[in-house]
Amino acid sequence: MYDFWLVIKSHSFFIGFALHGVQRDFCQSDGSWLHGEIPKCERKSCPAVLLESGEWHPTKFPNETTLQEHHSSDNVTKFFIGTILQATCDEGYTPSNPNTTIECLPTMQWSSSNFLKCEVTKCPALSVENGFVDGDVDAYKSSIRVYCDRGYRLRSEGDIDYQILFCQPNGMWNDSVPVCDIVNCPEPLEVENASYKSNDSLEGEFTFNSTVSYSCNTGFSQVSGDRLMQCSETGVWLLNELPICKPVLCRHPGKVKHGQVYGRTSEVFILI
Predict the structure, then answer these.
(1) Residue 126 resides in a domain
(2) How many domains would you assign to the chain?
(3) How far is Cα 158 from Cα 178, in angstroms, rounded to an integer?
(4) Element (DSSP H or E) covering residue 64
(5) Structural domain contains residue 89
(6) For residues 154 and 178, is the Cβ–Cβ distance under 8 A?
C-alpha cells in the first residue's frame, strides 16, 4: 500500500512547456518512488525546417538568457515556442512570396504550413530587331547568344558574328540589348564614259540587297561587262566585271555617185 502519492504538473500550456515522464508517482513503504525517475518539464519546440538554396535565421527568441545554450551563434538546434525565423535566399535566388518570416506556435507547428521557397532568379526575355537569340534558358548563371539576321551586323567595336549575354543575380542581363544594323556597301566605282543610278535605295545610301545600274553616256555603247550589280550581305558589290563603254561608230556611208566622201571620225562631208 502506498503511503503518499505525488502529482507533477507542467507549466501552463501557453508558456510553452511540456511534461516528459510520468505525471503521477507514489511513495512506497520502503521509502522509494514507484517509478524511480523524476519527470522533466521541457520547453516545447517546433521541428527543424530546411530551405533549399537559402537559410533560416532566428530573429526573435522567447527568452534569450534562458535559451542561450540552445541558440548559440547560427547553429540553432531547437526552435522553441515564440521563435521567429527570417528566410534569406542565396545569391541568384528570390523568395517565392513577400512574407519571409515564420513563427513557432504553442501547437508546436510553424505559423505557415506552406513554407516559402527560394526560386532561381530569371532575366527578362529578349527581343532583338533584325536579329535572333540562340538559347531558351533565362535563369541565373545561364547565357545566350545574340545573332543578327542575314544582311545585318552587330553594332560593336570589332567585327564579331554574335554577342554573349549572361543572366546576373539581380535578374538583369550583363549588357544592353544588342543592335543589328543593316550592311552598307561603299560608293560604286566610277566607270569611264558611263554613269550609274540607284534602283531602290535612298540617294547616297547603298544597303544590303540594293542594286545600281550602269548606263553609257550619249554617244557611247556598252561592249562588255555587267550593267547591274547588287550589294551583298558582306558589304561587297556583286559584279563579275565593270561595264566598258566605247564610242558609237557609224559605218562608211558608201560610194557617192559623181562625188567623194571625206571627213573626220565625228563628221563626214559629201562633195557632189
Answers:
(1) no
(2) 4
(3) 13
(4) helix 64-67
(5) yes
(6) yes
Is 125 contained in some domain? no
- Please, what's the largest Cα pairwise distance for the chain? 173
Supply 201's cell numbers. Answer: 535605295
Q: Which domain holds residue 98?
A: 45-120
pLDDT digits over 110-166, tens only? Answer: 998 677 899 999 999 999 999 999 987 889 999 999 999 999 999 987 788 999 999
Q: What does the block give as the cell for 261?
A: 566622201
Query: Around 165, how many Cα atoms within 13 Å sit in the side-chain half-sphere?
Result: 26
Grid cell 544594323 is found at 181
Whether the CB-CB separation of 234 and 262 falls below 8 Å is answered with no
Q: What does DSSP assign to residue 263?
A: -
Which grid cell sits at 174?
Answer: 550583363
Q: Which residue, among 253, 199, 192, has the nearest Cα to 225 in the 3D structure? A: 192
Q: Residue 108: count other Cβ atoms within 10 Å of its Cβ.
A: 15
Task: Tell whether pTM > 0.70.
Answer: no
Place of cell 530569371: 122
Under DSSP, is residue 13 helix (H, G, I), strand (E, B) or coil? helix
Q: For the segment 192-214, what is each residue's pLDDT rounded down to a tens digit?
A: 999 999 887 566 789 999 999 99
Contacts of 166 (CB under 8 A, 6+ apart): 141, 142, 143, 173, 174
Dig out the grid coordinates for 29 from the structure.
513503504
Are 38 and 80 in a shared domain? no
